[in-house]
Amino acid sequence: MISVIFLIPNIYAQSEPVTPESGSASTPPGAEKASGAEKASVAEKASGAEKAPESKLYSGAESTSPSSSTSNPSSGGCLIATATFGSELAPQVQMLREIRDNTVLSTASGTSFMTTFNAFYYSFSPTVADLERQNPAFKEAVNIAITPLLSSLSLMQYVDIDSEAEMLGYGIGIILLNIGMYFVIPALFVIELRRKIKF
Asked: What's the pTM value of the predicted model, to 2 decimals?
């Protein structure tokens, strides 16, 4: 009798159904996998959104890096001639560009000369070009002054330069010709004028 009394609670305990806790719902295995896939896709989208600005900034840094500005001597233009003749498409400016690109820069000595010349030329040419745009009389004076230079440089269009020796020979000849036109002839004229004034 006593044993029966002790067995009754055990039977009731075993027969009670197991219910889930309040507030928790049982989810099938397929639903858990689907929710995991959704979480992974959301995480990938979030990581992609975070990485996008970084790549944009990096590409922008590349486009504005110092390496984008080349040190090629042909990268600049003739500012004084452009201001004098009013356009980069003027025949005189085109002639200078063709001589520089097709003749002078075709040799190593010509490239070295243009590098040194550009360092000197661009130290003052922007100021002269601005003065030309502001003062028509000064612009006309510059036009007259550079005409002998353009005439001497036009000779380079009629020669074939195939070696460093030829480039040096023609280059030195053009430089001496311009020294004679711009310095020697005016100096001789001044000396002759002063001698006549004394007598």
From this structure: 0.59
